[in-house]
Amino acid sequence: MSVMTMVKAINNALDIKLNEDKSIVIYGEDVGVEGGVFRVTEGLQQKYGVDRVFDSPLAESGIVGTALGMAVSGLRPVVELQFEGFTFPAFNQILSNVSRMQNRSRGKYAVPLVIRFPYGGGVNALEHHSDSPEALFAHIPGLKVVIPSTPHDAKGLMISAIESNDPVIFMEPKRVYRAIKQEVSEEKFVLPLGKARVVQEGTDITVVAFGAMIRECQKAITMAREAGISVELIDLRSIYPIDRETVGNSVRKTGRMIVVAEAHESFSVGSELIAIANEEAFLYLEAPPRRVMGFDTIVPLAQGEKYYIISPDRIFYEIEKSVKF
Amino acid sequence: MSVMTMVKAINNALDIKLNEDKSIVIYGEDVGVEGGVFRVTEGLQQKYGVDRVFDSPLAESGIVGTALGMAVSGLRPVVELQFEGFTFPAFNQILSNVSRMQNRSRGKYAVPLVIRFPYGGGVNALEHHSDSPEALFAHIPGLKVVIPSTPHDAKGLMISAIESNDPVIFMEPKRVYRAIKQEVSEEKFVLPLGKARVVQEGTDITVVAFGAMIRECQKAITMAREAGISVELIDLRSIYPIDRETVGNSVRKTGRMIVVAEAHESFSVGSELIAIANEEAFLYLEAPPRRVMGFDTIVPLAQGEKYYIISPDRIFYEIEKSVKF
Amino acid sequence: MIQNDLPAIFRDFNPIEDKMLQVIDNEGNVVNEKLMPVLDDETVIEAYKQMLYERIADEMAVSYQRQGRMYTYTPNIGQEAIHIAAGMNIREEDWLVPAFREMGTLLAKGVTMKEMFLFYLGNEHGGSFKNVRHVLPIAISIGTQFHHATGIGYSVKYQKKDEVVYTFIGDGGTSEGDFSEGLNFAGVWQVPVVFTIQNNQYAISVPVKLQTNSINLAVKSVAFGIPGIKVDGNDFFAMYLAYKTASEYARAGKGAVLIEAFTYRRGAHTTSDDPSKYRGKDEETRWGLTDPLIRLQRYMQSKGIWNIDEEKLIEEYKSEIDAQFVEAENNKSYPWEDIFGHMYTDMPDELKRQKMEYEQFLSWKENRR
Amino acid sequence: MIQNDLPAIFRDFNPIEDKMLQVIDNEGNVVNEKLMPVLDDETVIEAYKQMLYERIADEMAVSYQRQGRMYTYTPNIGQEAIHIAAGMNIREEDWLVPAFREMGTLLAKGVTMKEMFLFYLGNEHGGSFKNVRHVLPIAISIGTQFHHATGIGYSVKYQKKDEVVYTFIGDGGTSEGDFSEGLNFAGVWQVPVVFTIQNNQYAISVPVKLQTNSINLAVKSVAFGIPGIKVDGNDFFAMYLAYKTASEYARAGKGAVLIEAFTYRRGAHTTSDDPSKYRGKDEETRWGLTDPLIRLQRYMQSKGIWNIDEEKLIEEYKSEIDAQFVEAENNKSYPWEDIFGHMYTDMPDELKRQKMEYEQFLSWKENRR
Amino acid sequence: ISESEDGAAVVGTMELAGEGSLLAASDEGSSETGRSDAGVRKVLATPVARAMAKEMGININEVPGSGPSGRVKKEDILNFKSPSAETSGRTDA
Ligand SMILES: Cc1ncc(C[n+]2csc(CCOP(=O)(O)OP(=O)(O)O)c2C)c(N)n1
Ligand SMILES: Cc1ncc(C[n+]2csc(CCOP(=O)(O)OP(=O)(O)O)c2C)c(N)n1
Ligand SMILES: [Mg+2]
Ligand SMILES: [Mg+2]
Ligand SMILES: [Mg+2]
């Protein structure tokens, strides 16, 4: 075991896989000498050489499109897009080809490709550096979409993502990158894709969240406990496939649910979870499941971001409202 | 009045606006001499000249990106993207700039831009020609997303879209293009964006749909009537802003809702409408609101499409299930 | 930067000077003797036969579509020299990353007309090209294939394999960002990829001059530091030479090459297109004189190696192709489960649930009868 | 195709031959007398002052950031000659479509340091450039601005206005699809746009040679049929001449121009970047000798027109800039309603509802105290 | 405004792990822990039925459900005559 930030844990996962499988290559903007603008790939080029860990030209469509070419011809690329806001030049390659090649070729060409990038707000950034576009990827059939919330999960999920023969969108909550540390095994281990984690059991209400919002929810849960409310917290981990079983079980038990996420609330993961709660636990519902999410606005720059971002007291406010409903 | 297909009605709307406002220009792939692959812009280049109606190079990012430039400098472009599947090369321009320029410039640069394209299945097409990506656009704050279901609506909504100072994604159900005709006024008229239409009133269940699914729903409603079920049908018309008032009122009345749409069900307009039904009519719900939508699969080619596409009997099946719940 | 030891044709037909590589003229006369590729007569005859086969297959496909027996089809008429010249150079282990208008090259890789027909009859199994080695499905989203080819090129190089990647795009496709990005990556990575622009003068209805202001399309290679050459795409020998030179260059580890094949789309864009809307008959007639089959035929006749009973051959091809079409047409099996079965290598629970719910609906429907 | 009556510099400094336009050398000596733009002494001095102002403003911004008084900042150090040469050519009615590293040109258009500071203090009102005419906000999504500039160029042409559009990109940005697409549209449409590549040798940590294999960046213009020229970006006179020639060409209705300004990013990519990770001190020192301010200063000194008390000027600038910073820093007003207020020209009901619900939360929070 | 950090985040300020930001280690991954979901035993009811029961002062647990799996529907509440509800005699009805 060793104390790791999420940055370190992902770096460690990449290191383990690079070491064990020669078909893995890593590239993207500034991932080589620089080790990535967040240092997630630090030291890997030095260790594995420029053929396996390298800087690409500045073109996201190119990064993803060439990675698809590699993935159908014997390699297992893990590419970095520098920020969530710069995934969109690659959106056509992702939606039109990466997600579809397996189906289009009727299984002849699987696409073992991981597209990883930092996402989310709370770091006082410029525009395009604070967004949470998970719903856009989750709506695209053929992809898996994964979001870890802790160093441990990041490592186990990343190794699973790399070992998956299907393309995985791996979104890393940049706010968490260095904000928490955890003892993480240095050995290889995997966590299943598509399975949520019950972070904490409770009986009065289910809170579903993921990524950086898990910590905010935990703070709100402390407030709730003081108010005598027992909260069950679920960390979704996988956005697609979504773990409707775990969510359904929990809501059947508690009868209440709120979803906490940074993204714009309309047409979001929150919407999907409310649909799931209805489908799986309708007859147990004691209050309307609700979204505690970002507004349908551009995420503001630093001075305005505090209004946009979900605070623990706003989560508590919604928990209380639901329980008192 | 004159009998029009949807193609003709949109052509007529464009004609009226071109005639009345010199700042309007129309361009895209094959919209000039050819009049568009579906003939929506037929005759307009001849009438208004190559400076106002013209063929662009084959590059969707370029079409939308240049249109944004025009929109902030005095023109009101209406651009055509050839099929929904080819909107994605332009996704970055749409998400990163078109939807954001108004906010980024704090109102200095409004973006009076209409991006129109045919979408949806049921026409035995190749891949990328049968998709329904409305949820992807609707999740992007700063856009309006409009889908007509009839020639009359197409005309009125198109004129409103062009007159809107905000960017509008205008999705045209290609399956309906020539499939129905309607008496439509040749005069100018507008229909408000953001307002749904109650196509038919009913008391037992609310069916929410849009685009090509309206006709399929109407067929299912005939079946339901024979089974003694009274259905209220809502044509959403606007996906964003979504008309939660009309939906809420209806579901409060009927206690039941299904959403019928062609898109993949996960993270969809269906999910959003279920969330809205919960928020607006929770205490009136007698059965879980449900999605009758496409699977999370690639829309199959012609031979397999019949399994994917929503048929009237499948809608009826779900209506009955909900009412019997 | 491009290496100095470029093969002579890249220097002699520098696209900056807007030159075009040609070996035979419209009458089949050799106009550039020293560039004539060394091919034995059988090979030349074989090339003609393959071009003829593609032509016939195309014409039949168009007529099946007209008969309402097949969905929209994309004919190749006029571009056969390119496809067969590429096909005769591409080896089993080489990769083909097609756009959507190079049927002859697909056939050379072993794809059958039955598969092509199945695809245009709306069955994915036809378009998967599952039975041939190293062929990707056709790329409908224009331009995207350039990146795939470059990525495969990287794989090949990384794995030190002796493989070359062939990819195609249309003149219209050169406007897409991915065209430029793909060539740029290929230039930096020096991958063994032969890029072909089939400049058939139109993107649906849009002529090249509305597509770009560059003097020709081969010259775009300059922007990405790879050698480029403009070739008479209706001249089988010129195309053959270009592919031979380019693939040797690529296999020698020198990097990618861009070929502009200057040709003409003699047919409609697809069976639902009507070219008379946007181009004149005289233009079509003029280009008709450059038809690659006629030129090669004339060459063979003047060389005295034309020994083909063409009528008979055409009949043979027709019945063979028709048999394949009928087979494809009779393939009525499309199990509904198939639409769920290929989305992932292991089906996620969400899809299993959707499949199960659909099955419930199907049995409800069955019971209602 | 490009018209034949190209201004001489485009022929004499043809990027195909990898030539670079230069007027003065590192010592400030005129090396190309006949190209020396005709500028009176005051103008030259004014240019120097503006470059100095940008330099000082930059250094101060970096130090505010280091003091923890401002968020991440993107310095311009070393690239001032480009910005000020452009700034001296751009007229009030001309359009500026910036990337994110041309502060001097923004200042020339009338943007204030207070606004710049406000932006880097995390307030959108600073970045809107609302108070100046025909300036777009900075483009963070690299490459996208090329299309905006081309579209504005179309507007200008369509509306028959006498306006030129200036836009910028970095060397890294040339790899993005939108770079090529934008130039291609501009070529076909022949719009009055002056495109500048600021080739400062790096995209964050990635050197140009990993960005493209082309002999230089100006040569990319060939692919799109527009004239291109490589210019010493640290030579104010060369840049001035290039902009003057290009803008006259554009205004004459002849179309777009691509300028590669060959320069060096002397500072870090942003205040959170550490260049020592990826480049050596000696390289930095070598490029330091080409610094545009030093060169212009030497020129003025040798010409005997250097009459500036630089120390005093710097103090003046510093206190003026600091006053602007303090003003920006003291602007604490950011009403929460603002985040809803600019999304649409008329606020949709969905947003009104979200705003109202947030207000309810705020009052609950208020009441809890 | 903020602490800086050792990375090269191109923009923004990153929170750094400080006191109290050490998460407990997880042993998940090495052996998958199966979860049981016993204890879900609640009355099944549609939201409208719950709402009406509450409105009418009816303890929904006492209402026999007529729907599939004994779910309580709107009609069940309407048809339900509970002694407790009668005696409580709501005045605002
Ligand atoms: C990204 C994208 N945009 C639009 C289309 C629609 N489309 C299909 S073929 C075509 C024209 C292609 O022209 P060209 O590249 O010259 O190839 P050709 O058809 O002439 O072989 C268009 C616009 C598409 N398939 N993909
Ligand atoms: C589409 C996109 N991808 C990635 C980034 C992140 N990023 C910001 S600046 C930069 C490097 C830009 O290099 P260059 O174009 O040379 O401009 P310079 O910074 O040198 O002025 C990168 C990769 C971005 N802003 N936009
Ligand atoms: Mg979505
Ligand atoms: Mg073409
Ligand atoms: Mg740079």
From TrEMBL, chains A, B:
Domain of life: Bacteria
Keywords assigned: Oxidoreductase, Pyruvate, Thiamine pyrophosphate
Enzyme type, top EC level: oxidoreductase
Cofactor(s) needed: thiamine diphosphate
EC annotation from Swiss-Prot or TrEMBL: 1.2.4.1
Pfam families membership: Transket_pyr, Transketolase_C
Organism from which the protein derives: Proteiniphilum saccharofermentans
Protein name as catalogued: Pyruvate dehydrogenase E1 component subunit beta
Entry GO MF terms: pyruvate dehydrogenase (acetyl-transferring) activity
Domain named Transketolase-like pyrimidine-binding: residues: 4-179
UniProt xrefs under InterPro entries: THDP-binding (IPR029061), Transketo_C/PFOR_II (IPR009014), Transketolase-like_Pyr-bd (IPR005475), Transketolase_C (IPR033248)
Highest classification ranks of the organism: Bacteria, Pseudomonadati, Bacteroidota, Bacteroidia, Bacteroidales
Keyword presence, ATP-binding: no
Automatic annotation (TrEMBL), chains C, D:
Stated name of the protein: Pyruvate dehydrogenase E1 component subunit alpha
E.C. number: 1.2.4.1
Domain Dehydrogenase E1 component: 48-333
Record's subunit section: Heterodimer of an alpha and a beta chain.
Function: The pyruvate dehydrogenase complex catalyzes the overall conversion of pyruvate to acetyl-CoA and CO(2). It contains multiple copies of three enzymatic components: pyruvate dehydrogenase (E1), dihydrolipoamide acetyltransferase (E2) and lipoamide dehydrogenase (E3).
Key words, A-Z: Oxidoreductase, Pyruvate, Thiamine pyrophosphate
Organism: Proteiniphilum saccharofermentans
Reaction(s) the record says it catalyses: N(6)-[(R)-lipoyl]-L-lysyl-[protein] + pyruvate + H(+) = N(6)-[(R)-S(8)-acetyldihydrolipoyl]-L-lysyl-[protein] + CO2
Coiled coil: none
